[in-house]
Amino acid sequence: QVQLVESGGGLVQAGGSLRLSCAISTSIFSFNAMRWHRQAPGKQRELVATITREGIINYADSVKGRFTISRDNARNTVYLQMNSLKPEDTGVYYCNAGNSYQYWGQGTQVTVSA
Predict the structure, then answer these.
(1) What residues contact 98, with CB distance under 8 A and at least 6 apart?
(2) Are 96 and 4 in contact (CB under 8 A)?
(3) How far apart are CA 26 and CA 4, in angstroms?
């Protein structure tokens, strides 16, 4: 059973930074891509950042230039460095991995105060 465990969320003031971690119970190279999503209260879940097995990276327009996705292959961990945080970044952040079947973590809460 593949498990994804997110950590690193918290409460931060606008302009601050947080680094989220997603630890995976198997090799990250088992998956075509690793992704971070977020879900704000009352809104649909949205894709924030993707890193493929080949290392190709994409970001949502709303986070470009502020967020950085990276991975540590040896630790089977994917990170999301979030800088210049805004109140609209508030939400539950989920790590996702998969091929035909998608695995999800339990989520970590990020709250950005104005």
Answers:
(1) 31, 32
(2) yes
(3) 9
For the chain, the distance separating the N- and C-terminal CA atoms, rounded to the nearest angstrom, is 40
Distances (CA, A) of 82 to 4, 27, 48, 100: 19, 24, 11, 29
The answer to whether the CB of 96 falls within 8 A of the CB of 39 is no
Taking only the tens place, the pLDDT of each residue in 27-68 is: 998 999 999 999 998 999 999 999 999 999 999 999 999 999
- Residue 12 CB contacts under 8 Å (≥ 6 apart), including other chains: 18, 85, 110, 111, 112, 113
Query: What's the pLDDT band for 4 if we cut at 50, 70, 90?
Result: very high
